[in-house]
TrEMBL record:
Pfam families membership: MatE
Biological role stated in the UniProt entry: Multidrug efflux pump.
Membrane-related topology note: Multi-pass membrane protein
Protein name as it appears in the record: Multidrug export protein MepA
Location, primary (coarse class): membrane
Amino acid sequence: MPKAASQEYRKTRMLTEPIPKIITSMAVPSIIAFLINSIYSLADTYFVSGIGINATAAVSVNSSLDQIIMMAGSLLAVGANSYIARLLGAKKEKKANEVLSTAFFLAAVFGIAVMLLGSVFMRPMVQMLGATPTCEQYSIDYATYILLAAPFMAASFVMNQCLRAEGSALLSMIGMGAGGVLNCVLDPIFIVGLDLGVAGASMATAISKLVSFGILIFPYLTHHSILRISIKNFHPTRDIMSQIIKVGSSSMFRSGLAVVAAIMLNNLAGQISDDVLAGIGVSTRIMMFPFGIILGFGTGFQPVVGFCWGAKHYDRVRAAFRFSAWTAAIGGGIMGLLVAVFAGPIIAMFGKSSQEMLEIGELCIRLQCLALPIHGWVAVVNMLCAGLGDARGALLLSTARQGSCFIPIVHLMAFLLGATGVASVQAVADILSLALAIPVLRRVMKKIPSTEDIQNLPKEAVPIPEGQL
């Protein structure tokens, strides 16, 4: 199919294809990409676990560094994704190009800042992230090369999200997935074959991130994408920045709170033992698989609902939410059951020598599996808010799981229940987030028919402000 025809097809299919088909076709590549990312995240942990519990704990600690790098990247990427989808639905491609270029270059600048600050303050940084004295040097070894890739990681996140916003979920999947496969190949070579240890895992991950960046930027450079990245389109105007920040801030705060929550959890677990720290870290990476499926499904839903909202097809907005909410809740229940049944053998792959790690990791996995249907449903409500540009709802829900429903209870549960409390706090926070999601959904669903009623009036009578796109 010629490039122009392909681009036009991606624009019209959002409004013409059946809702289950379009959301599924958008979601499957994203789900595959997230699963591959989860695999290479676990690959680091698996190969490093052969070095010892302290090395496994170090890799777990450094997962917070990834979150820091992605924090501003997520602000720009998710905000740009939402705004671009609405702009494309309203046929404003020139403005969409400006949004993409602005987000891309700002993300790269943030990545450079993280790289420089992290390299200068390396030891205090890993200590703050929760590294214990026995795993501190391993943490430094791992962080060194990850920081070098920080600018490319942040910029890649923007390109990944914006490819989805224009309906190019397959290109997004190839970019993320290729890096993940490469990481799985390089890990045993660097860690075992070249005997580089934890530093080898970091090198493999950094190289994989660079390759992903190259693949993601390729369609923009070769004009196979609808949008273009150009320094000439870099326009951080008040309108563009306010729209990006309004929606993207929810993702940034979510990432920021995830860092805070992980640091608190790492420090509490580390005070008990490196075995508990490793168990919590490994179980978190294992749960990235079902969480990745839910997040991938949500990222397939969000641009569809945003595009339909921008094009004023409100019946499709409601239909998209109903389909996605039921699918996420039922799918979450099925995944939770499967993972819970095999939790023991799965966690045993990463540390058979430590009984305490096995017990804590298994408990943590099974409790989070119980809450997985709730997690899936709340995630779709969150994506609905982001897709419609409802910054308040998106912010409230995106920060609930590891913020308002997590931080107030983590110390109390650790104090009362020790290692068991540390293992169960995330599942409890997932359940509590439901109490926030229900009233948010009621408010947002009321907004859709009222907006539709306004659109039935003559256009000249009720102008729609630019900011509502």
